[in-house]
Amino acid sequence: MIKRITTTLLSFLIAGAVFAGKGLEIKITVKGLENSKMIFAPVGADKSALTNTIAFDSKGTAEIKEKEAPQPGVYMAVFPTLNNQYFKFIINNEPKFSLTTEASDLLGHMEVKGSNENKVLYEDIARLRVFQAKFDSLNHAWRGTKDSLAKPVLKSQLKALVADENAATAGLASANANLMVSKVIADKSEFEEPAALGGDGMHIKLDVKGLECSTLILANYYGDKQYVKDTFTFDRQGTVILKADTMLPGGVYLAVFPDLGNKYYEFVIAEKQFGLSTDTNDLAGHMKITNSLENKLFYEDMKFLSKTKETSDSLVKLYKGAKDPKDKEAFKQQLQDLDKNVKDKRNNVINQYPTLFYAKMLKSMKDPEVPEAPRDASGKITDSTWQWRYYKAHYWDNVDLMDDRLLRCPVFHNKLKTFMTQTVVQIPDSINVGGDELLAKTDMKGEMYRYVITYIFNEMANSKIMGFDACYVHFGKNYFCKGLCPWVDSTKLFKICDRVNRLEPVLVGKPAQRLTLPLDSNETRYAALYDLKAKYTILVFWDPDCGHCKKELPVLIDAYHDLKKKGIDVAGYSAAIMEIENYKDWVEFIQKNNLDWTNACDARRHNNFRFEWDIQSTPQIYILDKDKVIKARRIGADQVEDYILHLENPSYRGKLINTVKDDDKQEGTE
Q: Do 397 and 408 form a contact (C-beta atoms < 8 A)?
């Protein structure tokens, strides 16, 4: 924080008259930089100007000598051996002076001779350091205390401290009004340091008048959520500097202000160095943008939409209230014209700036334009699905799936969700093909690929729609278990592939596995599933010690009996999962509830069917056809009768529900 305040005060360049006298001689001594080099340049210079290198001698002294005095202003001495640390000084009508300091603390050890401008400047810096220490201590106490009585007192003290500091700054500037330093001290508008020194790093200045010494929470969009990135404190001028050697990942970010009840404004990070300035009266409306075409376009679009919405809202009211059909049509046309204006304006941005992130974000909002479906000679549409197939095939044409920044905007996730849940036909085969085609459009390795495969896989893992576990198996088997998701750790990967291997044999559409179990505890008689000859077989795995099973089995046996009364050829195979201690309870339950189908058990735990049939919870109900192919699984007892009646007659719907009725979950990922 100390560096931020002091360097902000010094970041000022003013053009003025050339010195009355000619020539310049400045002696700079830095203890600890003996025999190294220094760069001398004006603040605000670009990189091409940072070539004036001066060598320190063996005593750590370098001399700046100019025959013609340079423009008055603020200059900097940059030290490459200190990782480009620097200090600044003023040149103005003082042709000869010296600055002496130490490498360990360039600003704190500064001694000035022969320059009243720089003497006042560094006295102010020293005073600011004292202020900053007090401010940090008091600010830390205020934000850290949980004492409701102490908090307002500390905040009041903090505001008084800042007010005193501002008054001292104004007084110092006034007392030295004849000097350039007064303007340097008073200035609050420039960047912390020249962009030329920023290199490839990030330097973003956020100013909000009215939020001095308050908190800023930096957040960003990611998918369908918003995540806090960091927390900052505004300085006494209402400034926060986002500075780092590398840029934050590009996308749409939010500057959130707790002191304003968590109001926020959005902005785009896609450029390394820029500034945003506003005030608390109207965060978005009063926004001023420096050095950022991305945010200039963003806010122009936002303001245009705001004005358009006002007009649109008025027209909608007039349209609804109009009684004359001609007036109604006129208002409708005006609304259509407004919509066209928005589309045209955004298309201009997209076409004029195709490589900008904001243009890509706007483009990704666009749906593909679908042509008219082909017609035969009589004008009849030849293929009713043609437009849907075209739309699906061109759905991603406007989205740059190689640009990971789109993940950090409030557009992509909804686009992905709409595609996977509405555009693609909601049957496992279509979902698998649609997902594969989408993933093939990514680079199959970057952040976009990771987000898409993770979204699809987790949606399938958590799906309650019967049969969608086939999609879980497909994407798990073909992406995770084939090593195409290297970010997943070995433990998680083992669990995923184990679930895939266990699920695959029991998916809807697969032939049922062989199952032969004892009919009693002595294991003298056995019943094989495949020995049951019927058009439909109800297979249920249950536990006589399970409370839910005791409620479901009576419902299931009633459905079985009702189907038989309706002439449906149906058989039942009941496989009990239990310990030998529960054998008596099993027998009594069968007799009490008239379970007159095939009742088998594995009381002595000699069979591995629990694993082979993926029994995670009970009861588990399957419906098999005459060839013992699985037609339904994980359904409730109350769904069985309607489901079999639907298989008999597809037009019959009854209370047919395609959601599963258990809490089984698959292994997802992050």
A: no
pLDDT above 80: residue 44: no
pLDDT digits (tens, 9 = 90+) for 405-414: 999 999 999 9
Is pLDDT above 90 for 454? yes
Which residues make Cβ contacts (< 8 Å) with residue 606, sequence separation at least 6? 523
Mean pLDDT of the chain: 87
Instruction: Give the Cα separation of 93 and 22 in Å (integer).
Output: 10
pLDDT attached to residue 75: 86
* Residue 397 DSSP symbol: T
For residue 403 the two structure tokens come to 């640009």
Q: What is the pLDDT of residues 114-134, one digit of tens each?
A: 999 999 999 888 888 888 778
- Span 566-576, mean pLDDT? 95
pLDDT tops 50 at residue 10: no
Over the stretch 622-642, which tens digit does the pLDDT of each residue have?
999 999 999 999 899 999 999
The answer for residues whose C-beta is within 8 angstroms of residue 149's C-beta and 6 or more apart is none
Q: What distance in Å separates the CA atoms of residue 74 and residue 65, rounded to the nearest whole number?
A: 17
Distance CA 172, CA 181 (A): 9
Q: How far apart are alpha carbons 612 and 602 in whole angstroms?
A: 14
Confidence at residue 187, expressed as pLDDT on a 0 to 100 scale: 52
Opening angle at CA 586, ends 584 and 590, nearest 5? 120
CB 473 within 8 A of CB 507: yes
- Residue 518 is encoded by which pair of tokens? 């004892």
The mean pLDDT value for 311-332 works out to 90
Residue 398: exposure state from Cβ atoms within 10 A (0-12, 13-18, ≥19): middle
- Which range, of 185-199, 233-247, 595-609, averages the lowest pLDDT? 185-199
- Quick one: tokens of 514? 């062989």
CB 99 within 8 A of CB 118: yes
Q: CA angle, corner 636, sides to 631 and 640, nearest 5?
A: 50
In angstroms, the CA 99 to CA 50 distance is 20
Torsion angles phi and psi, residue 314, rounded to 5? -65, -40
Global pTM? 0.71
Structure tokens at 665: 């979950």
* Torsional class of 543: left (φ above 0), alpha (ψ -120 to 50), beta (otherwise): beta
Rg for the chain (alpha carbons), in Å?
37
Q: Residue 192: its pLDDT value, please?
A: 36
CA distance 206 to 222: 22
CA atoms within 13 A on the CB side of 32: 11
In whole angstroms, give the CA distance from residue 649 to residue 583: 40
Amino acid identity of residue 353, one-letter, is Y
Q: What order do you get walking across the sheet with 85-91 strand by strand? A: 53-55, 37-42, 73-79, 85-91
**3-state class of 395 per DSSP?**
coil
Question: What percent helix, strand, coil does the chain show, rounded to 5?
Answer: 40, 20, 35
What single DSSP character describes residue 381?
B
Q: List, as one string, the DSSP characters of 215-257.
A: EEEEEEEETTEEEEEEEEE--TTSEEEEEESSPPPSEEEEEEE
How much is the pLDDT for 190?
33
Across residues 300-308, what is the average pLDDT?
92
Where do runs of H (alpha helix) occur along 476-615?
A: 490-503, 547-565, 583-592, 609-612
Question: Strand pairing of 570-576 and 598-601?
Answer: parallel
